[in-house]
User: Which sequence fits this backbone?
């Protein structure tokens, strides 16, 4: 069964061209924020009660390391000002969540829509096409073993001069997932149902098309450390027969072992 | 100049993150009393999920005794660290025994949980009217255990076991 396709005429050029400045802006703002945070670390002598840690320290070992107090600064609670009491437990005051970054390969069962295919062949091409996607995923546990996650995928930036006019030259999608997971020693296994929308464009096609995505996925993760994982995922479309995805990713969790090991 | 130092700090922190990721050294190994993040000097004790090292530090100029607590979570799940509830007793030169309370003018010390396989440390001051020769800590009280487990520390960081 083919997915529903909605041709959307979008002025302003290809989607990839329009989103590039947005991505660049996010990267620049992110870097500037990190630099400011690091600069602030020099100001620990004026911190009163809430010391400023850099974003990196927050990430690494999730606040378990105290930056060393300056020479001459007391380490005793009530006298010191470089770190507050209990910084070692502050990550547990934050919500239990995870962030995963990786790459996916998506295989589409069908090629370009008829409108695009018409320019090269009289019939819809068979065999499908692939997309290489950057995947950013953020998730929260709902209850023990049950989680939800949001995926943002972006990719398949093709060479504009490419002759492969039936392959997507840009793909963007967002998915919401609901899943279960369980531990097996250093391995965590999970299954989830994901749904969302995908926008893609083809060379020589005006505008983009929007497709619905509904997938069943399986995941396996290896705990490298209590807060870090490496994992893989595979999935198959439930509405586009023959479409599938596979990916690898690195994960960071705010709570050790996702708070699952009681 | 501040920008340069900020960039340097940034580079150091990023290297630190890379090292943590590469070595996976953030996780505390149960019973090791060792961490790349901090030292575990002093008397060692284990209470449930907590490995504790308690060290007597030099007294403050105002005479307050100082004890540093270093702890690592042996378990994969969070556990309680309650230094506010720690039972601490001091012994003076003439043998008097006095109950001590931590100096906490900002009311910072509270019951908290430490994440699984994480480490932490705190140094607390215990004011007293007379010089304290020896400090004894019920380490079990830190983990909310009722069966007392006393560890005593003489001044100048000379530990002594107490039955």
Assistant:
């Amino acid at each position: 069964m083919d997915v529903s396709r909605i041709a959307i005429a979008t002025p302003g050029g290809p989607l990839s061209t329009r989103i590039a400045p947005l991505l660049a802006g996010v990267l620049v703002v992110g870097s500037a924020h990190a630099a400011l945070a690091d600069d602030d670390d020099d100001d620990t002598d004026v911190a009163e009660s809430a010391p400023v840690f850099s974003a990196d320290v927050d990430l690494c070992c999730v606040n378990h390391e105290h930056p060393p107090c300056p020479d001459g600064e007391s380490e005793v609670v009530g006298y010191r000002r470089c770190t507050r009491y209990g910084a070692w437990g502050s990550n547990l005051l934050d919500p239990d969540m995870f962030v995963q970054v990786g790459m996916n390969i998506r295989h589409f069962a069908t090629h370009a829509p008829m409108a695009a295919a018409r320019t090269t062949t009289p019939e819809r091409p068979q065999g499908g096409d692939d997309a290489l996607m950057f995947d950013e995923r953020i998730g929260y546990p709902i209850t023990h073993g049950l989680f939800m996650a949001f995926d943002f995928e972006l990719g398949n930036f093709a060479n504009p001069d490419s002759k492969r006019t039936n392959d997507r030259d840009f793909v963007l999608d967002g998915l919401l997932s609901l899943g279960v997971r369980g531990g097996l020693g250093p391995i965590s296994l999970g299954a989830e149902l994901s749904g969302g929308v995908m926008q893609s464009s083809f060379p020589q096609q005006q505008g983009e098309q929007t497709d619905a995505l509904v997938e069943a996925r399986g995941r396996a993760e290896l705990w490298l450390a209590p807060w870090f994982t490496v994992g893989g995922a595979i999935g198959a479309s439930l509405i586009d027969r023959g479409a599938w995805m596979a990916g690898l990713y690195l994960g960071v969790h705010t709570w050790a072992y996702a708070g699952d090991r009681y | 100049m501040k920008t340069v130092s900020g960039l340097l700090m940034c580079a150091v922190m990023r290297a630190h993150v890379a090292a943590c990721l590469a070595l996976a050294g953030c996780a505390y190994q149960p019973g090791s009393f060792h961490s790349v993040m901090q030292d575990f000097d002093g008397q060692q004790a284990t209470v449930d999920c907590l490995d504790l090292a308690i060290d007597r530090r030099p007294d403050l100029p105002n005479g307050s005794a100082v004890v540093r607590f270093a702890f690592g979570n042996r378990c994969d799940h969070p556990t309680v660290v309650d230094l506010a509830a720690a039972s601490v007793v001091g012994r003076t030169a003439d043998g008097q025994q006095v109950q001590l309370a931590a100096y906490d003018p900002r009311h910072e010390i509270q019951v908290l949980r430490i994440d699984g396989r994480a480490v932490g440390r705190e140094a607390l001051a215990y004011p007293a009217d007379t010089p304290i020769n020896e400090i004894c800590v019920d380490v079990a009280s830190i983990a909310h255990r009722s069966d007392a487990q006393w560890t005593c520390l003489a001044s100048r960081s000379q530990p002594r076991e107490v039955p």
